[in-house]
Amino acid sequence: MRVPAVRPLPLERSTRRALWASIVSMSFVALVSATPQSPFFPVLPSKVEPWGPLRWISDLVGLNRLDASGLMFVGLLATVAAAVGFVLILREAWNGRLSLRAVVILAIAYHALLIFLPLLFSRDVYSYAYYGRILTTYGGNPYVDTPRDFRINGLFEYTWPGWRGTPSVYGPLFTWISALMTTVVKSPRSLINGFQLLAAVASLGTMAILARLVGWVRPERAVFAAAIIGLNPIVVFHVVGGGHNDMLVALFVAAAVALLFARREMLSAVALGLGMSVKASAVIPLLLLIVVVVAHAEPERRAGVLLRYGGVVGAVWLGLALPFLQAENPTLGLLEVAGHDSWMAPGQLVVRAFSGIGGLIGGDEFRDPAASVARIALFALSATGVVMIGLRLWRDASARRPQALVAAWGWALLIVMLPSPVLFTWYLVWILPLAWALPRVPRRAMVILSAFFVVTQLVTESSRLPDVLRTIKLPFGHPIAIAVALWVARDFIRRLRRNIPFDAETASHELADAFESGPRARESLPAPTGAPNPAPAPAMRRR
Fold first, then answer.
1. String of b and e for 411-437 (b: at least 16 CB within 10 Å)?
2. 502 three-class SS
3. Are 399 and 408 contacting, i.e. CB atoms less than 8 angstroms apart?
C-alpha cells in the first residue's frame, strides 16, 4: 500500500520576498566589492585585487566604468539594500517562517563570496601582521615596539598612519596567532587571505554553536540566533571581509554560553578568558560569571571558589602573556586603546562637548584635559552600569539562571560599548552571540545597529572622496547610535527600578512591535501526538 509523501507547505509570500531581498542585496554588495577602485577597498598591495566570476559580472554590467562618485553612490544603494534585506530575513527567522537549513546554506554561500574579493573596509589586518612580524622576524615585543621602529618592512606603507606608532592593543593569544600566521605565510595576499579565513571559520563556528545550543534551550529562537550571525552583512563583509579578530571573541563567547548551559562553569570561564586574551571586551561577561559562581557557593566556601576561578583564568592568561610583560606597557595596550576614538561612537558627543567647553573656558590648552575628563566620566558610567548588573546577580537567585545570565552579559556589553568614545562597526559581533537571549529593546537595538552600521562606511579611504564630500563631517557620533543608546538606557533603568529580570519580555509597547511580528503566518499543522516538549534550560548547580 502506497503512503502519500508529506509535502512541506509552500513558503509564505513575505518569506519569499525576504529570501530574494537578502540574496540580491548581498550579491549587489559583493559586485560593488569586486569592482576595481571600489570604495569599499582600503589601500591594497600590488596584485591584490578581485577576481573570478564576481569580477567578470562587475565588468559586464559596467561598474568598472564609473568614477569615484558614481561608485560611492552605487555602493550606497548596495549597502542600503543589504540592510533592508537583512532586517526582512531576520524578521522571518524570528517568526519561524524560515528554516535553519536555508539560513545555513545562505550563510555558507555568502561567506564563499569572499574567496573572490580582496580586503574590505579596514586596514587592521596589516597591523595584525605587523605585530606578528615584530615578534617573529625582528625578535621584538609588540607591546613595546611599534611598526615605526621597523619601517623597512613592506607592510609599513599599508598600515593605517594612526597605528604606525602604536604598540599592540590586542590580547596575548591573538599576538601568538598573528606570530603563527606570519610564520606560515609571507606574502601580503596570503596574509590577507589567512586572516579572512580565520574570521570565516570563527563566524561559521559561532553560528553552528548557537544553532545547536539555542535549538535545545529555546528552539523557537534557534533560526534567529543563526541568522543574526550568518546572514548579517556586517559579519560577512566588514568582519570576515576585513579579517577582524573580533569574530574570535564572538566564537569564545558562544562557546562560553554553550558550556554554561552544559553546567561547565569553569570551562565557560576559561573560554571567556581566552576571548579576553584576544580582546579585553570579554572580561565583562567573565567577571559577571565569576560573581554568579561565587554567589551560588556556600558563604564559607566563597573565598575558595573565587580563588580557584581567578587562579585558573589568571594562569591561562598569564601563561599566554608572560613573555610580553614589562613595566613600560604593563596593561598590554589597554590604556592605549582607551585614548582612541571613532566618529560613530555616541560617546564622542560628550567628548567633543567637553572639549569645546574647555576651549571656551581656558583656551586651546584646556581642550585635551577636558576631553580626558569626559572619557573618564564615560568609562565610569559604563562601570557603574556593570556593577549594578553584578549586584542584581549577587542578590537575586532568579537572575542567575543560565538564560538570564546570558542576557545580563549582553546588557553589560551594550552598556560598555554604546557610551564608549571608541566604537567601530565590527564591535557589534561581541554581542551578536547573546542577542537571542535578550528581550525586545536590546535585541532590536542590535538589529537596528547592524542594519544602520552597514551604511556608515561608504568609502574606506577618505582620500578617495570628492573634495566637497571630504569636508563634510558629523559634529558628533552617529545619530542612530545615540538614539539607540538612549533607548537602551531607558529600558535598563526601568528594569533596575522595577526589578524586572534581564531576559524578561515586558508588556509595554516598544518600537517595531508590529514590524517584528510581520504578516500573519498560515496556521501550522498540529504537532504529532507524543512529540516531546523542548527540554527546559538546566539551572546552574549550587557549588
1. bbbbbbbbbbbbbbbbbbbbbbbbbbb
2. coil
3. yes
Calpha distance 224→407 (Å, rounded): 15
Contact between 415 and 492 under an 8 Å Cβ cutoff? The reply is yes
SS (H, E, C) 21-61: HHHHHHHHHHHHHCCCCCCCCCCCCCCCCCCHHHHHHHHHC
Q: How many CA atoms lie within 13 A of 375 on its CB side?
A: 18
Gap between the Cα atoms of 488 and 457, Å rounded: 24
DSSP secondary structure, 474-491, as one string? -SSS-HHHHHHHHHHHHH
Do the Cβ atoms of 34 and 54 come closer than 8 Å?
yes
Give, as one character, the DSSP assignment of residue 146: -
Q: Euclidean distance between the first and final Cα of the chain, in Å?
A: 58
CA contacts within 13 A on the Cβ side of 517? 6
Q: Where are the domains of the chain?
A: 13-322+422-466, 341-421+474-504
Report the distance separating Cα 285 and Cα 415, nearest Å. 12
Task: Report in angstroms the alpha-carbon separations of 272 from 185, 257, 316, 344.
Answer: 28, 9, 11, 27
* C-alpha span between 534 and 100 (Å, rounded): 17
Neighbours of 336 (CB within 10 A): 16
* DSSP symbol at 143: T
Q: How far apart are CA 102 and CA 223, in angstroms?
A: 9
Cell of 252: 569564545
Q: Is the pLDDT of residue 283 over 50?
A: yes
Position 200: which residue type?
Answer: A
Note whether 285 and 252 are within 8 A (CB).
Answer: no
Note the pLDDT tens digit of each residue in 301-337.
999 999 999 999 999 999 999 999 988 888 787 766 6
How do residues 152-167 score in pLDDT, each as one tens digit?
A: 888 889 998 888 998 9
Residue 276 CB partners (closer than 8 Å, separation 6+): 171, 282, 283, 286, 317
Q: Locate 146 and state its grid cell.
A: 611599534
- How much is the pTM? 0.90
C-alpha cell at 86: 537583512
